[in-house]
Amino acid sequence: MLLCLDVGNSQIYCGVYRDDDLWIQFRRTSTMRSSSDELGVFMRGALRENGVEPESITDIVICSVVPDMLYSLRSCCQKYFGLEPLVMRPGIRTGLKIAYKDPKEVGADRIADAMGAIKLYPDRNLIVVDFGTATTVCAISKGREFLGGNIIPGVRLAMDALEEKTAQLPTVEIVPVTSAIGRSTVESIQNGLYWSNVGMVKELVARMTAEAFADEPPLVIGTGGFAHLFDNQGIFDAVVPDLILEGLREAVRLNPER
Predict the structure, then answer these.
(1) Nearest alpha-carbon partner for 72 in 33, 107, 109, 46
(2) More confidently predicted of 67 and 139
(3) Cβ 119 vs Cβ 247: under 8 Å
């Protein structure tokens, strides 16, 4: 079995593949510093609670945008699973041509998303919108070229900023809305967060399409924790919540010898 670890700024998203099937998923906060022992005990316990014996894990791949956690995670894999993980980093095979000015600047999460997208939708122009702590909007050509994209404060990050930087605005539940006019402070925040993201994504997709894919419109894929909030807005052609895990699985296939 393959254990995939997507380490974001807010959570560690874990998925276990048995052959081609995503067997289980679980999460852990990544906002606290953790030792390799703490991570190892958590991982083994979470696997057992989900019906997977830790000894059945034969491979591990890590995608991390939190450099401080990488040493502990690698040590955790070595000590508690007896495995050297594949780490998404510059130099591994990705199947992509990176068009960034400095390819090493592209986050591992964005590369993994792109790898998952071209695996699921080959020979298509693609725009991937990932709603994580930051929202990323990335363009990938049907020739497997990662063209670049945009990074924007995520939905929850924007809400947290309103709460922390204002004296009277409360934390609210992030939900789909139907009205454009809020009739309470809570509704006003919810509406503002929701419709600003709808407008932002539509505008970026339109501009990126005109700039890069005028001859052949792209398939627009939504992923990340908040993607399903926008199911009814006609933004996406497909929503793939586990896109980054698919990309990590593809990385293992492309780098069998490490």
Answers:
(1) 33
(2) 139
(3) yes
CA atoms within 13 A on the CB side of 258: 9
Look at residue 31 and tell me whether its pLDDT is greater than 70: no
- How many domains, in total, are found in the chain? 2
Interval 199-222: pLDDT, tens:
999 999 999 999 999 999 999 999
Mean pLDDT of the chain: 94
Question: Beta-carbon neighbour count of residue 98 at 10 Å?
Answer: 19
What pLDDT shows up at residue 42?
A: 95
Nearest to 108 by CA among 253, 225, 244: 244
Structural domain harbouring 211? 97-247
Whether 252 is in a domain gets the answer: no
Say if residue 85's pLDDT is above 90.
yes
DSSP notation for 113-168: HHHHHHHHSTTS-EEEEEESSEEEEEEE-TTSEEEEEEEEE-HHHHHHHHHHHSSS
User: What phi, psi does 168 have (nearest 5°)?
Assistant: -125, -5
Q: What distances in angstroms separate CA 107 from CA 9, 88, 170, 175, one per listed residue?
A: 12, 9, 32, 28
Residue 102 annotated to the active site: no
Do 156 and 238 have their domain in common?
yes
Query: Which tokens hold the place of 20?
Result: 């081609």
Active-site entry in 20, 21, 37, 109: 109
Position 32 pLDDT exceeds 70: no
For the record, the structure tokens of 255 come out as: 């780098």
pTM of the model: 0.92
Tokens (6 digits) for 185: 């402070």
pLDDT: which is higher, 144 or 19: 144
Question: Of 34, 63, 87, which residue is a domain's last?
Answer: 87
